[in-house]
Amino acid sequence: MSNDIDYRSVTCQASPNIALIKYWGKRNEELILPDNDSLSITLDLNDMHSYTTVSTSSSMICDTFYFDDIQQTKLSERMKKVLQEVRRRAKDNKIKFVEIRSHNSFPASSGLASSASAYASLAIALTNLFQLDNPQSTAAYLARIGSGSAIRSIYGGFVRWSSENECLSSCIYPAEHWSELRIIILIFNSSKKPVSSTDAMQRTRETSTLFQARLSTINDKINKLIEAIKIKDFNTFAKITMMDSSQFHAVCMDTYPPVIYLNDQSKHLIDLVHVYNQMDGNQIIKVAYTFDAGPNPFCFIRQEHVDEFLSLLKYFYPTMNDDVHKHVSNVNEKFSSINLPIMSNVLERIVLTKIGTGPKIIS
Amino acid sequence: MSNDIDYRSVTCQASPNIALIKYWGKRNEELILPDNDSLSITLDLNDMHSYTTVSTSSSMICDTFYFDDIQQTKLSERMKKVLQEVRRRAKDNKIKFVEIRSHNSFPASSGLASSASAYASLAIALTNLFQLDNPQSTAAYLARIGSGSAIRSIYGGFVRWSSENECLSSCIYPAEHWSELRIIILIFNSSKKPVSSTDAMQRTRETSTLFQARLSTINDKINKLIEAIKIKDFNTFAKITMMDSSQFHAVCMDTYPPVIYLNDQSKHLIDLVHVYNQMDGNQIIKVAYTFDAGPNPFCFIRQEHVDEFLSLLKYFYPTMNDDVHKHVSNVNEKFSSINLPIMSNVLERIVLTKIGTGPKIIS
What we know:
The structure is a homodimer. Chain A is α+β, with helices and mostly antiparallel strands. Helices cover 33% and strands 22% of the residues of chain A. The mean pLDDT of chain A is 93. The A-B interface holds A 207, 209-210, 212-214, 217, 239, 242-243, 246-247, 249-251, 253-258, 260, 262-264, 267, 270-271, 274 and B 207, 209-210, 212-214, 217, 239, 242-243, 246-247, 249-251, 253-258, 260, 262-264, 267, 270-271, 274.
């Protein structure tokens, strides 16, 4: 294709994001307009990203999609929706077809949905390739109609996705603002297939009697969380984050039939974090957890406490796979006072990462 | 003691109850006044009961309590509170001391808190022994200050505990009203100690942002449930029961730190019940579940479906203990179409029972 005289190509990297205040519920299914504002942290590109190249030339005879260099028999409906919107917005009416090549630097078993980083990188690459107007808001719009929360991966740092007006996203604070923050992702081995979040959130909307009450708490929580981020008040940041995670799983439970994403390992980690935080008796929260639509915890922690927490994880989740706890040299015996069972061989992987600066256009 | 000239004794049997609409939250800790009305089914005395004998005579020199014929070193605070109230109400000022002898016909591993049947039988026995005024409401009051939901075991059949006025209980429909209803209790083997429900409900009150929204849904649910019981509409009965169970566990989850009573086995049973109910595609609900502050499900089912459901349980919860599935002759192969994992050796016991007619005074 690159021999074509009008061949053009753009590559973009984008990373997943983790919601501190969860998105759950669409008031418009087609345009993916959310019921509530959400707030997230975009992860570091160096640790995990989707890498998407889009190209076009007059000699292409159809749209094509390669995932991990394997041509897919057809484009998903969401991808078609994104391309349709690109064509509508493009001034150049000669745009015919597009080739999309995408892969992820992180395996599906990382516990992270790759759709956010995949659609964010696709949206930015397409916006650039066709030089669409208002590139940032256009990319945000395209990412959103591809996969709701992908809109939050359009920016780095702390990102808010608004549920009002045009329902776009914006960076609240850049990554550098709170550079000592770390994210530790625990991957528990679980073969359970999660309920599709699109179906589940629709069911929550239709059946949960607590859902509206959740919505009414969101803006106040977001304002308090933004203030905590502003002054780097980790205690408040941690508490709001954990409470919103629990509230999100509460409305999932209140759905009929109930949607239960947390498992026995999730529950153990929740108990462990609370006991650990209370251990020194000084009211200082060292670690916060949040859970998306799955059993794996995302933990937030300041750099200074990372070593101790990794040592705690090695104590309570010993495993025969030496690679899991490779960052820990020795186990701290002070954890033996914690009255919780030790769970052997349940932890498959630990990912240690930090806040990222956002997507990057390559060449 | 029985040689004493003024020795008197009363024995009462009372059974546990299972809440369809859960009690969760006290607006007065001392008097145990609940935040919301609750509705329950009292179980059959023949299958499980507490058996309590109270006696008094002028020669007794202190209050004594025997549990399973073993003298306890002291009475619990709640028991003292009950006795104090009995003395306050008794016309006979000569009442000095009381001996309490209590035991349960069912083991602690039945998944049922024995405090409801224990305090109900104690309250009725004491009310009779001392011939207190307004015996029914007095017994209800005494049971309640002993252990909140014990007040619902004062009556048989379907019982409502009001959160208004005097916060007493009443029988809505007697056991005979819906005699084909059966209750199947599954006991999963779990060594987890539950969080004390007294502490947990207080924490929910203080920290859950969804708790008030739950309270506002209760009366409407109770009215609909009573109507369903009236016309024996099992579908509506089942759906409201399951939804209130989930909503109760949702506000537990929304507590900080979260209170999680359900485990992986509970979740599996929930999924199994929903798949089973949808299997015939005829919108008829055959089984409903509810969970108290623990992982063991209480299932409601009409007599006509008991055999099939027991067979389903044998298929999905095979065990090496032949006693567990003793009621099932053969396994129905039609369940192989259900796409859920088979969980071996997780089920410890099945209790099959029905609605009971309420407490009984013996001799």
